[in-house]
Amino acid sequence: MKKVLLSQRIKLTTRLRVLYCYVWSVLLYGCETWTISETMKERLRALQMWFLRRMLKISWTEKKSNLEVLRAAGVQRTLMMTIRQRQLDFFGHVMRRQGIEALVVTGKVEGRRARGRQRRKYLVSLCTCLKDNVSPTRKLIRATEDRLHWHDMVANVVNDDTAP
C-alpha cells in the first residue's frame, strides 16, 4: 500500500480512504479487548500523525506542528474515539449475552491477585471515555441491559484525541 499512500497523482481524500480502509482495519484488529494506558494512547496518536506526515511528505525537520499537519490533511484525530466506540460496542454485546466472557470482563474470576502493582482494569479504562463518567461497577453493567440507552452512551464517547 506504500505506493498508493505516497503517490502524489492520487487525491489526498482517496489516499485517506485507503488508509482508513486497509491500514486501520489491520491496525485496529482486536482493539475491542485492549486496555489502553497513557503510553499506548501516545503511541497511537503518534502513529496517526506519522501516517499523515508520510502521506503529505512533511519531514520531521520541517518543524510543523501536529495541528498544522491535521489542517493540511483536512482531518481530525479520530483514532482513539474509534477504538473506544468499538470497545463499548463489544462490552455491551458481551454483557447482554451473560456468558463466561461477561465474568472475565467484569473481573469476577476466583483466585489470588498477583503481587505488585495491579494492572489497569478493562472496566476502569472504559469508564474514562464516557461523558457521563459512569462508575465502573454496577451502573455501567446495568446500562448495557437497555440496548437503546447503551447505544446513546456509545454515541457520546468523549474524544480524548484533543491533545496536539
Assembly context of the chains? single chain
Number of helices: 9
Radius of gyration: 19 Å
Helix content: 55-70%
* Structural class category: mainly alpha
Could you describe the largest sheet, including whether it forms a barrel? none
Mean pLDDT score: 82
Low-pLDDT parts are none
The topology string of helices and strands comes to HHHHHHHHH
Give the distance, in angstroms, between the N- and C-terminal Cα atoms.
27 Å
What report would you give on this structure?
The chain is mainly α and 164 residues long. It has a domain at 81-108 and 120-155. The chain contains nine helices and no strands. It is elongated and about 55 Å long. It starts with a helix and ends in a 9-residue tail after the last helix.
List the main descriptive attributes of the protein structure presented here.
single chain; mainly alpha; 164 residues
What is this entry, summarized?
With 164 residues, this protein is mainly α. It is 58% helix and 0% strand. The chain is elongated.
Question: Topology, pairings included?
Answer:
Elements: H1 2-6, H2 12-27, H3 38-56, H4 66-73, H5 79-97, H6 100-106, H7 122-127, H8 138-143, H9 147-155
Helix pairs in contact: 3-4, 5-9
